[in-house]
Design goal:
By secondary structure, the chain is an all-alpha fold. The protein contains 13 helices and no strands.
Length: 336
Amino acid sequence: MTSATSTPVASGSPAATATATTTPTPQRPAATTRPRARGWQVRFAVLALIWGFSFLFIKVGTQGFAPLQVTLGRVTFGALVLLTILVIKRERLPRSARTWGHLAVAAFFLNALPFSLFAYSELTIPSTLAGICNATSPLWGMALSVVALSEDRPTRRRVAGLGIGFLGVLTVLGAWQGFTGTDLTGTAMALGASLSYPIGWIYVRRTLAGSAHSHLSMSSTQLLLATAQLAVVTPLFTTAPAGYPILPLLSVFALGALGTGFAFLLQYGLVAEIGPTTAQMVTYFVPVIATAAGVALLNERLSWNTPVGALIVLAGAALTQSRPRASTARRSTDTD
C-alpha cells in the first residue's frame, strides 16, 4: 500500500483503508464530543466484523452458485446500495467520458478481478486462508509504489516490513513442508486478488487525482461498471443456476449490500471523522475475525502455522505503512 488516506473508489476490501487515493483526506472536526467518540468505535467494530465475515460469505455463496455468479451478485447489490444513497443525497454520476473510462479500469482491478479471484480461490482453500492472503495487500502495494510512485521512497523500516510480511506468507503456507496440504492454485488466486488492489489504487491515483466528483459518485459509477463487466462475462462461462438456495443467496446479498455497499459508507465516514491513520487499523482485525468465523462456523481446520504466520504478515504490513518521524525524515534528507 501507499499512503493511508481516504479511498475515492469502492473496493469492498478490508485493505481499502490503507490505499493510495485521488483526493485529499477530509478534515476532521475541530472538536469531538464524548458520545461521538463512542459512536465511531462502534462503527469501527461493525466494519471489522462485516469485512471479516466477507470471506465466510464468499465460501457459503460458492456452495450454491458459480464463483462468477457470486461476484456478479456482490457488485450488483453493492451498486444498488450506493445508487440508493446517491439518489437520496441528490448527487449525480460523472458525465465525463474520460472519467468513466478510467473508472472502468478501476472497476476491473478493484472489483471484478479480485472479487472473482477470491471466489474461485475459496473453491479449494479455506476462508481463513483467503482472509490472511487479503492481508498481504499492503505488502504488494508497498513493493509496487516504490516503482510506480516516485514520491514513495523506500526506507529500511518499510523494506524490512516487506521481508517480514512475505516470511509470514511462507509460514502460513508451510514452506518448510513443501507446501503440503495447501492448494497452490487457490492460494495463488487469493494472493493475485490481493495484488490486484494496489494495482488499481495506483492507477486511480495517477489518473483521477484531484477529481471534482464526490467519493459516492465515483464509487457508484465504478460498481455500475463492474456490474456491467461481469454481466457480459458471467453468461459466457457459467450456466444459469438450477435453483436459488436460501443460505448461499443470503450470503451473496450480505456480501454485496453489507461488505461492498454499506461498508464503503462506514469506511468513508470513519476516515472523515477520525482520520485515515486510525481508520486503517481495521485492516489488522479482519484476518482475526475471518479466521475465527471460518473455524467456528465452517469447522475449518487451523494448524499452528496459520495464526502465527498471520501475525507475522500483519506485523510486516504495519511496518510498510509506518512513516518516519519528522525529525528523522529531516535528518535523512540532510544526509542525501
